[in-house]
Design a protein that fits this description.
Blueprint: E1 2-7, H1 10-20, E2 25-30, E3 35-37, E4 42-44, H2 47-54, E5 59-60, H3 68-76, E6 81-85, H4 92-95, E7 102-106, H5 118-124, E8 129-136, E9 146-153, H6 160-183, H7 221-230, E10 237-243, E11 249-261, E12 271-273, E13 279-283, E14 286-295, E15 301-302, H8 303-310, E16 316-318
Parallel strand pairs: 1-2, 1-6, 2-5, 6-7
Antiparallel strand pairs: 3-4, 7-8, 8-9, 10-11, 10-16, 11-14, 12-13, 13-14, 14-15
Helix pairs in contact: 1-2, 1-6, 5-7
């Protein structure tokens, strides 16, 4: 079957490589334009574009998905099916082009966790299971008819990075199975409205904004640790430290931590450290033991290395 693939990050590029390895023919790839990044602001290509170039697949990078020249170019490939993984919302003028329609791989069990960041939010919300879903795209985000899905248990103390990799691999398998079924006309779709869930009670997965990443120490310790896990390694939950002598401020991302249950008398945000081997932060209902962190402008470090370079952490407070 002739396919046009649309996507951007590693989660999408893995699926693209798996499809290329099948008997299906990827006629073209659509991804975002190159963006300047790094200190030199050199143009950086998406992970999906890197795969396309490696396999000499035509790569389209439109500034606007509604541009008529882009739409005409898509039509010129005469693809049977469009496959979307981690990409922008498509206009109907695009997703309605192929005769076998357009499908999307989503990293949750729809209709739960519609939106841009399902992997982060299932961990933040303390879910024990999630999954991947393949569905037909329509005009509303993540609401189309379901082709197939797979449920996956979330490991204990699971970070977003680990769950990303698990769902990336399981999602690619499910996607290829779905493409095969579509080619053979063997699908039975499920309308999302058939799930007996009050739409008002559905959990969503909105985009993670920078303001969401600052840890809120009015929350319970167990909630704080879920925020740390749910944002690790990217974009990273952070605290802001201020030196009590100089008033200097610095952001520190907490990449990994452990929840130490138990009662204590320290106010929330109290820093407990020997400045050499350990760093605890008091919270309501326990202590957060920082195990791996990243000071602003520095590399990710284990706690001993961080304390060795930071020095006198007790002179700082969390603000």
């Amino acid at each position: 079957m002739n396919i046009i693939f649309m996507g951007t990050p590693e989660f999408a590029s893995y699926s693209l490589e798996q499809i290329i390895a099948t008997n299906h023919h990827v006629k073209a790839v659509v991804t975002v334009p190159d963006k300047p990044a790094g200190r030199g602001l050199k143009p950086q290509m998406s992970e999906v574009k890197k795969v396309a170039l490696h396999y000499n697949i035509p790569c389209l990078q439109p500034l606007k998905l509604t541009d008529q020249a882009f739409i005409n170019e898509l039509k010129s490939f005469h693809a049977d099916l469009f496959v979307v993984v981690a990409f922008k919302k498509l206009p109907e003028a695009v997703w309605s082009i192929p005769p076998k329609k357009t499908i999307n791989l989503h990293a949750s069990l729809l209709p739960e966790y519609r939106g841009a960041a399902p992997i982060n939010w299932v961990i933040i919300n303390g879910e024990t299971r999630t999954g991947v879903t393949v569905f037909f795209i329509n005009n509303d985000i993540d609401t189309g008819q379901i082709i197939s899905y797979k449920e996956i248990n979330i490991p204990q103390k699971c970070h977003a990075g680990l769950l990303h990799d698990i769902l990336m691999k399981e999602g690619a398998k499910l996607l290829i199975e779905s493409i095969d079924k579509i080619e053979k006309n063997e699908i039975t779709v499920i309308d999302q409205s058939s799930f007996i869930i009050d739409p008002a009670k559905l959990k969503t997965a909105p985009k993670i904004t920078p303001s969401m990443c600052k840890l809120d120490w009015t929350k319970k310790a167990e909630d704080i640790i879920r925020w740390i896990y749910g944002l690790s390694p990217y974009p990273g939950a952070y605290i802001e430290l201020q030196n009590e002598n100089t008033n200097q401020k610095i952001k520190v991302k907490i990449i990994d931590a452990e929840l130490i249950d138990g009662k204590h008398e320290s106010p929330a945000k109290t820093i407990i450290t020997d400045n050499k081997t350990y760093w605890y932060i008091a919270a309501d209902g326990g202590l957060i033991q920082v195990e791996e962190c990243q000071a602003e402008g520095k590399k990710v470090m284990k706690i001993k290395g961080f304390l060795n370079g930071f020095r006198n952490l007790q002179q700082w407070k969390i603000i």
